[in-house]
Structures are given as structure tokens and as C-alpha cells.
Amino acid sequence: MKRKVTKAVFPVAGMGTRFLPATKSVPKEIMTLVDRPLVQYAIDEARAAGITEFIFVTSRGKGALEDYFDRAPELEASLKAKGKTELLKVLDDTTMDSGAIAYVRQHQALGLGHAVWCARHLIGDEPFAVLLPDDVIAAETPCLQQMVDAYAQTGGNMIAAMEVAPEMASSYGIMDVPPSIGRVLPMQGMVEKPAPGTQPSNLAAIGRYILSPQIMRHLGEIAPGAGGEVQLTDAIACEISERQNVYGYRFDGQRYDCGSKAGFLQATVAFGLARPELGEELEGFLRSIMAQRRAAE
Ligand code: UTP
After folding, report:
1. φ, ψ of residue 89 in degrees (nearest 5)
2. How confident is the model over 140-148, as a mean pLDDT?
3. What domains, with CATH codes, occur in the chain?
4. 110 touches ligand 1 (CB under 6 Å)
5. Which atom of ligand 1 is nearest to the CA of 11?
6. What is the model's pLDDT at position 125?
7. For 232-267, how does the pLDDT look when each residue is reduced to its tens digit (9 = 90+)?
8. Quick one: pLDDT band at residue 297, thresholds 50, 70, 90?
9. Residue 30: CB within 6 Å of ligand 1?
10. Does residue 131 line the site of ligand 1, with CB under 6 A?
11. Is the minimum distance from the CB of 173 to ligand 1 under 6 angstroms?
12. C-alpha of residue 297 to centroid of ligand 1, in Å
């Protein structure tokens, strides 16, 4: 029988250099999309998919993340005294049951694969999800929920897949899959950041995974790969050749790469437009600024 996925790993130990100087003191995952930090979107998605144990892989300078999920007694008391019950409710999503959240340190940024491996003792012998909070996905059914549903049918390992333009393939882990229009795609291989023109398909892995505990074993054995980093992709490729039980999952939804400035700005506009209290004003502003730009051309 397939075991239920109840644990999720959130690797947040990267340095976030694309957002310097902001990330000198603010963890990338705390940066705000409208009024919620990126990490809140990932936690909400994980909760909706049935995750009950949240494991953060952190590094030096990420203290703001731990504080974010703690109680804020003074703030709560002050809001309560002022009768601001709506604001108090907003804080509800940020609190976690005691013991539901754990933090492990990645002492050196040796790569995403190494970060996931740092959680091995907390994962033990169970399947687990991995969510990268800088990939934010807008979807009617949250992406991880879609994957959990598909995983209930297939078991094995499941990786969110998204089509990318050929010139972008060398920035992603690319899946080797037979041509298919289906959602669940059996993978024959996977390659991290392929040299231009050598990609086996146009399907890229993005930051949602359901993985079997064997992946931890591969991560402990593989050598550093692309960019000198321990690559999660390489551990997945090992699993494909040993067990052929890895699937790409073509999810339904819009992914924003909030690890890049352009992606973060696009997400800000899209999420702002989707907010009932902001959408109309923001749309009016965007229309007028675009009209001004066109008039100036
Ligand atoms: P990125 O490739 O976006 O790297 O990592 P980064 O350091 O966060 O950002 P840039 O490229 O310097 O701007 C993808 C995910 O893997 C995590 C990151 O925190 C992010 O969630 N990661 C990466 C680690 O946890 N440890 C690492 O050693 C590398």
C-alpha cells in the first residue's frame, strides 16, 4: 500500500544572490507578494495537500523565517486590546502547532540536493514532498494537491513538469519523457542544465516534488554535478535507472519564478490583480502607465 505523504521539506538555505542587496539581511522567502511572504504561499499549499510536518532546511541569517512562524504575544495582545479581530485572524495562518515545524541547518550552500539530504533523519523511511517557496503556483486545485492525487494512483516519485522555451532549457532540470499529451509522464531520464541544443525534451522540473526515501540514499552517494553542486536531479536520475518509478506531472496552473526579479514582478501584478480589494485600482494604474509609455514612444 502507498503511504500517505505527511512530511514536506522546504529548502531555504540558498543565498538568494539575484535579489542582492535586499537578501543581505532579508531571507528571500520572507519577501512579500502583496502582503504575504513567499513562504506562506508554500505552507498554505502544503497544508491543503495534507502535509502535517514541515521541515525547513535553513542557513545562517534566516532567523526572520523562524520568527515568522512563532507566536507574537505583544502584537496579538495589542490587536486584541484594540478589538482588531480581523487582523488577529490574518495571523492565524502564520502559527503552527508546537512540534509541527522543524528546522535543520545546511552549514554550507552545497546545492539543492545537499539541502534536501540534510533533512534525511527527519524523513526516515517515508515518502516526502519538497516545495521550493520561490516557485509560486496559482492554481484552482493547489499544485501539490494535484500531485498527491496522482501519486495515490502511481506511487513512486512525482515531479512537477512545465513546458519551457528551448532557449530556457539550460536553466532547468529537463525530463527525458516520451512525447505525450497526458498529465502523468513516465520518465526515462533527467538532466540538470543541459548544454543548449542537447535537451531531451522541453519539459522542465519545477519546485514541487513527491519523493521516495531512496532518493535520500542516492543523495548521500552521488558526487557534485552541474555547477559543482549536489543536484537533486542527479539523485532522481539514479532512481530512474534503478527502479523506473519516476513520473513527471504536467500540473494545471500558472507558475511564477519568484527567485528572479522579472518573475517576482509578474507574480506581484498577477496576485494584486486577483485580489478583490486591489484589482480594480491596480488595473487602472497599469492601463494608465501603459498608455503614457505608448504616448511617449
Ligand atoms: P536557487 O537556485 O534559486 O539559489 O535555489 P538561491 O541561492 O536561492 O538563489 P540565487 O540563485 O543565488 O539568487 C533553489 C532553491 O534551493 C534552495 C534555495 O533556498 C531555493 O529554495 N537551496 C539552494 C538550498 O537550500 N541550499 C543550497 O545550497 C542551494
Report:
1. -65, -35
2. 97
3. 7-259 (3.90.550.10), 260-297 (no CATH)
4. yes
5. 25
6. 95
7. 999 999 999 999 899 999 999 999 999 999 999 999
8. confident
9. no
10. no
11. no
12. 39
Average pLDDT across the chain, whole number: 94
Record the cell numbers describing residue 24, joined without a space. 543581505
Whether the pLDDT of residue 1 is over 70: the answer is no
Average pLDDT rounded to a whole number, residues 131-150: 97
Give me 76's grid cell: 496579538
Q: Cell 511564477 belongs to which residue?
A: 256
8 A C-beta contact, residue 189 and residue 237? yes
Of all atoms in ligand 1, which is nearest to the CA of residue 15? 7
Does the pTM surpass 0.90? The reply is: yes
Residue 123 Cα to ligand 1 middle (Å): 21
Tell me the C-alpha to C-alpha distance, in Å, between residue 291 and each of 135, 266, 271, 281, 295: 31, 19, 22, 15, 6
Q: Which atom of ligand 1 is nearest to the CA of 57?
A: 25
Q: Among candidates 83, 68, 77, 73, which has minimal Cα distance to 36?
A: 68
Q: Whose CA is nearest to atom 10 of ligand 1?
A: 16
CA 284 – ligand 1 centroid, Å: 36
pLDDT at 3: 82
CA of 268 to the centre of ligand 1 (A): 20
Residue 102 bridge partners (DSSP): 55
Q: Which residue has the cell 486584541?
A: 80
pLDDT tens digits, residue range 45-73? 999 999 999 999 999 988 888 889 888 89
